[in-house]
Specification:
- By secondary structure, the protein is an alpha/beta fold.
- The protein has 5 helices and 5 strands.
- It has a 5-stranded parallel sheet with strand order 3-2-1-4-5, sandwiched between helices.
- It is globular and about 55 Å long.
- It starts with a strand and ends in a 17-residue tail after the last helix.
C-alpha cells in the first residue's frame, strides 16, 4: 500500500514520530511531502530551510528501523503530490484531516479513487495540550512535551 503523509517537520517532535511510525506501519511505500520554504514561511516562528529540514527528517527516518520504502518530496500546497501519484491512503492528525478531505474531493473530481484516511491522535505534552512545533519554537515545551522551566529574574 502506498501511503502519503506531509508536514513541515520543524522541529521534529514526538508527535511527528508517532505520525511517521504510523505511516511506516501501514504501507509498503511512504511518500512524505515536506513543505517548501515558501509554504513553511506561513508558520509561526523561525523555520529551518528545506534542505536542513529534509536532512533532519532523513536522519530521523533512518533511526526508525523499518523495511518500508520511503521518499521525501517537496510540496508547495497541502495537496502536494496526492493528485499526481497513485496512493492508497493518507495519514493525518485531527488538525490536518480537513486537508485529506479536500484531497479526496479533488481526487474524486479528477476521477481518482479516494484515499483511505488514517487519523493519528495528537501526542499530548506534560500540560495536557498537544505537542506542536510552534510551542517548541516558543520555548513552552521540548520535543518530548516536557514543560520548559522558565528562570525567574528578580
Amino acid at each position: 500500500m502506498k501511503v502519503a503523509v506531509g508536514g513541515t517537520f520543524s522541529p521534529i517532535h514526538d508527535g511527528h514520530i508517532r505520525l511517521l511510525k504510523t505511516a511506516l506501519s501501514k504501507g509498503t511505500h511512504i511518500v512524505i511531502g515536506l513543505t517548501s520554504d515558501k509554504m513553511a514561511s506561513d508558520k509561526k516562528g523561525k523555520i529551518e530551510n528545506f534542505e536542513k529540514r529534509k536532512n533532519k527528517l532523513k536522519s530521523k527516518l533512518e533511526e526508525i528501523k523499518t523495511n518500508t520504502k520511503w521518499d521525501i518530496v517537496k510540496i508547495n500546497s497541502p495537496i502536494g503530490v496526492t493528485l499526481d501519484e497513485r496512493f492508497d491512503a493518507i495519514v493525518v492528525t485531527p488538525e490536518t484531516i480537513h486537508n485529506a478531505e479536500k484531497i479526496n474531493k479533488k481526487r474524486k473530481e479528477n476521477g481518482l479513487e479516494e484515499l483511505k484516511i488514517i487519523k493519528v491522535d495528537l501526542v499530548l505534552a506534560e500540560d495536557g495540550k498537544p505537542i506542536s512545533s510552534t510551542r517548541i519554537r516558543q520555548n513552552e515545551i521540548d520535543k518530548h512535551g516536557n514543560l520548559v522551566k522558565k528562570e525567574r529574574r528578580p
